[in-house]
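Sample entry was shown:

___
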Amino acid sequence: MRKFWSLVKKEWHMYKAWPIIFLIVGAVSIGLLPMFEGRFINVNIAKEEFRLGLLFLGLFLTGAVMPWQFLFSIRRGIKEKELWLHNSSPMTVLIGAKLFYTVAWTTLNSAFYTFFFHWTPSIIEGSTSEIIWMQGLVVSIIFLLGILTAVGALLFYTVYIQLKRYIKYGSVIITGMLFGLFLFTTDKIANSSLYDKLLIHGEIPLAFLEKNMPVFTSEDVLVNFYSLYIVEELVMWLVMASCFIAASKWIERVITR
């Protein structure tokens, strides 16, 4: 574990500008811009609605940039092979440290942004504990989505690297087409009857989460809780772990080739 944390610390020294810039820009935008609404900015909506919109925009942009920062770190490692070749840790640990750092700063920044939920009392009505509960749910969802997005980005980046070895100028287009095909196929499989028969088992209704949630007064914000299926979740995370290991081994072959 000591080696792992030293790798995470190294990531912080190399890429600390990403979370710091996003934190400052996001905090200033969400906290200060709504104060100038009506003076220098005219968006024709209430101040708190403007702040809530900026908050969700900040969360979205933070999640959208996260895989790019992760891939940027991976790309630098491939270009500067000595950073990895002279390290005794397995490739899964080296890439896992990069994944952990990226998801960690995304989650922490998102947790900071969600504190602005307390600044929208006319839209979100509830006690402090209820709003903190909602913050925890939002941050947990972003954390899980961050892992899924990063592993997916890693997998398709390895496909791009392999294609680039044979097709120099069309590898990006082909990778994009394969990604589109993957999304289409996944959607078809997820909506098939066979998928329901095999994976939709062990239902855990999530409606109980709503009891501790604050109330949104705006009709534009709808919160619905569905069900979680144990078998589906176990299979999904097993597939993601397998993809992560396979992609790490693939990158290791590229570096040592």
